Every structure is written in C-alpha cells, then in structure tokens.
Amino acid sequence: MYNLGDTTYKKQPKFMSAEIANHVIEKTKNYIQKYNKKEFSFIFHGGEPLLASKQFYIDFVTKVNEMKKELPDVSFFFDVQTNGVLLDKNWIALFKSLNIAPSISVDGTKKAHDMFRVDHKGNGSYDKVFKSAQLLKEEMDYADIACVINTNESPEKIYASFKRMNATYVNFLIPDYTHDNFPFNKNETTMANWLITLFDIWIRDANRFKIPLFLGLLNSLMRITEDAKNESTVLVIETNGEIEAIDSLKACGHGFTKTGLNITSNNLEDIQNTSLGNLYFNDLNSKLCNQCLQCPLNEICKGGRLVHRHSKHNGFNNPSVYCNDLIKLIAHVQKFFISCYPELHEKENIEAINPKEIMEYLSNISKEVESPFKKELESFLQQESVLV
What we know:
39% of the residues lie in helices and 9% in strands. It is of the alpha/beta class.
C-alpha cells in the first residue's frame, strides 16, 4: 500500500515490540473467549516481515501455543507474506518448525517484477525470488504466490512464468483502484479481457495450479458454499499497536484507515464502533448501493471488493469500478460451465448470462432511488479519529 498515497507508515516503528505483540495475543484470547471462536489466523505482513528477527517469530508462536492450553478447542493458523528476497533454508526450517505457511509476492514475469521490485542499488529481485520459490517448493512441497495483475503483461507470459516457477497456488489480485484514480476506460473491460484470456489458458491446462479467483467463481456458479475467509474478517495491527481495517482501504486516501484505536487500550471488536468498522465488519457484501442491490449477478460478485466501490464524492455508495469487468468475466466462466454440463443446464432452464443486456439494465436504473444503506455507506466521510 506504500505506493497508493498513504504515507502514515513513515511515522510508525519499523518493528513491532514484544510489548505490543503480547497485547495482540492477550486481546486475541479475550476476543476468542467472548465470541466463542473455533479458529483464528495470524498473518505476518509488512513492509517485509523477514526483516524482523527469527526470535520474534519463535517468541510469538510460543506464546500463542501457551495460550492454546487455555483454549484447547481452538485451532490457530500462522501465515507470512514475504517478497522472497531473504527467504532461505534457515527461514524455511524455522517456518516448518513453527507451522507458519509462507507465501511469496511476485509481480508476474521477470520484466514486470523487476520494473518496481528493486534493491537499493536499483537491481531487480526476480532472479532471487524465483530461486526462493523453487526452494520453498523443494522444502515444503508447495509454492504459494500472490500476484497483483499487470494488464500490460500478457496473460500467456505470466501464466508460463508461474509454471516455470513451479507454483502450486497463485492468488491473482485485481489492482486496488477507486473511482477517483481508476486508470482504465470502464466501458472497455480491460481487466475482464485479460482475466478471460488467463481463464482459458488455465482451464485447458491439465496440470494447472490453483487460482482462487476462478475457483471461487466456479463454486459460486455451482452454488457451492465456500468456507472461505474474506476481507471482512481481517484486522490490521500496525507496529505501534494501532487497530485498522484491511490495508487495501489505504487506497481510499491518506490516513483513511486510522481509527484512533490501539491494541494497548482497546479490544479487537472496538473497531465496530467506528463508522468504517461498522460497515466493514458487519457483512460488507450485503450493504451495497442501489445498482448492486438490483443486479441479477449480486449473488455471484457480491458487489466486488469494498475498496473498488469508493469515491470521495459519496464513499462506498457506488458499484465497483470493475463492475462491467466482473459481469463480463462471470458470463464467460458460466459459458464454460454450461459447455461442460449442457443437459443439466437445459433441464434446470438456466440461461446463459448476456453481459451487454445486464450492463444496459444496470445503466437504466434510476439514480434517484437511494440504497437503504446510504447512511452507512457514506457516514464515515467525515474522517473519525475517536470512537463514535
């Protein structure tokens, strides 16, 4: 999020202290007991989390395991998202011993990756990261990747590069733009065209790696209920202890996610007492603008990601900037699914989605009809610094 206009990180400590970490663990225990949770995940993120000492991870996981003795029915999970530059056999051995699951951030091809991910001398890091991914596959038998989509790179080349990397899972992330800085023409469906090409490559590959974006759409179209964690279950604890919503919302503006809450004096659930937190942590996929509420694909796309709905004019009371892209992509995936089971769809009288028809229908919905969630979608526009 450091390239999206929010520079509040510059005023924070580079590393989380043991004191803050202890507060995180203690408040987690309180939260689990209060809400009778059966599982909880800790994600070590950054910055670059491998700049922290190995002892930090040993101490943190050891303390959580001590807490687990008081919560024997609770399952704890640990993940770390790294740029892969510092990943080596020693780090991997540590992660294996602590049951921490690492994932590496890779920006597609060598050309795309080295465009921005450089060291202090300006040298690209792709070759080192490639070796780290290979090492991860050798030592842990998997290589999970996170990749922000760059539509200037061809899907064919990016898919091939991850095949060479021997990836087992690639989480392709749609870039976090808002209505105020969206760089594409919304009518040209640049993102959908890119993803449709990627989908066709992926689905034809018998030895394909997992792509959660596509698997999620296929499951939704098959009405399979996923026990998947979405962004509304994520809280960020900054190195200084500040409690915030997911970091993608930093794209909405400088200091946008600041709540005035701190883990040293507040509980995790206190974020729900802020207007952003109230929207964010109370089923963000049902509180939508009127256009989304009227959309026949609402059940599939669920309004898209929250950050993609934001504008300075009226907050989240908008469809996603990728609305037309999502409609076109969903229609394409459904077309593939129908081709696999034509008799079933004919028997169930399920028609193919016509993206142009839906786009036209949505464009004609009256702008004068307000969403019943208008107040919640727009209430946080007056930035809060304390609990309301």
